[in-house]
Amino acid sequence: MRILLAEDERDLNRIITQKLKSDGYSVDSCFNGREALDFLDCAEYDAVILDIMMPYVDGFGVLKHIRSKGKNTPVLFLTAKDSVDDRVKGLDCGANDYLIKPFYFEELSARIRAMTRKNFGMTDNILSVADLVLDTGAHTVKRGEKEISLSSKEYNLLEYLMRNKGIVLSREKIENHIWNFEYEGGTNIIDVYISYLRKKIDDGNNNKLIHTVRGSGYVIRESK
């Protein structure tokens, strides 16, 4: 999944970004609310993490911008202010969750998973298509009894396909969700990674799950 992080404490921003990337997320990070608004106008995100006290535009202003566009993107506030009034204001503005600094990264990861589960209508960390099972909490993938080892980008791509089971996703939409603005790779990168996934997931199985829809993109579903 692709996450936007807006945090003006540069050391904390760097640490959170590294941790999120090590968890397999694609991350765009910035240091003030004005930059956050620019990112939000140029890309779609699966979750947004906002510091409240940021230069130029604070977290509340960024959140109001997101909701004014009719987007239900999950938003988590980070703040050093531990007052009830601030928490109430954030939640009333449309935030999904709130985390007080300092915090454990494991808790941040769990809260991100909880927010995105709810947004995708999931009740737990398990995604499944036929006998393919992906556990977003443990970051494991199994087809039947066989555990499948995936690279970070392969895992991200598979998770995105499975979260949108039965929905045809264009190459552009996939690229926008899996790769951040730092990516400078080739134009066929989606096709390459789809090929990697097919070899690991579909080879040797009669029930092919990853399908090409000519002229439209890719979809994961059981074979008809």
What can you tell me about this protein's structure?
This protein has 224 residues and is α/β, with parallel strands linked by helices. It has two domains: 2-119, Rossmann fold (3-Layer(aba) Sandwich); 126-220, Arc Repressor Mutant, subunit A (Orthogonal Bundle), CATH 1.10.10.10. The protein has helices at residues 10-22, 33-42, 59-68, 84-92, 105-119, 152-163, 171-178, 189-201, and strands at residues 2-6, 26-30, 47-51, 75-79, 97-100, 126-129, 132-135, 140-143, 146-147, 210-213, 217-220. The strands form three sheets. It has a five-stranded parallel β-sheet with strand order 2-1-3-4-5, with helices on both faces. It has a four-stranded antiparallel β-sheet with strand order 6-7-8-9, with helices on one face. Helix 2 runs parallel beside helix 3 (59-68) and helix 6 (152-163) packs across helix 8. The longest helix is centred in the middle third of the chain and has 15 residues, at 105-119. The protein is elongated.
DSSP helix fraction: 40-55%
State the total count of DSSP E strands. 11
Low-confidence spans = none
Distance between the termini: 28 Å
Largest sheet: 5 strands, parallel
SSE pattern: EHEHEHEHEHEEEEHHHEE
Rg to the nearest angstrom? Answer: 18 Å
- Figure out the total of helices: 8
CATH architecture classification of the largest domain? 3-Layer(aba) Sandwich
Q: Give the overall form.
A: elongated
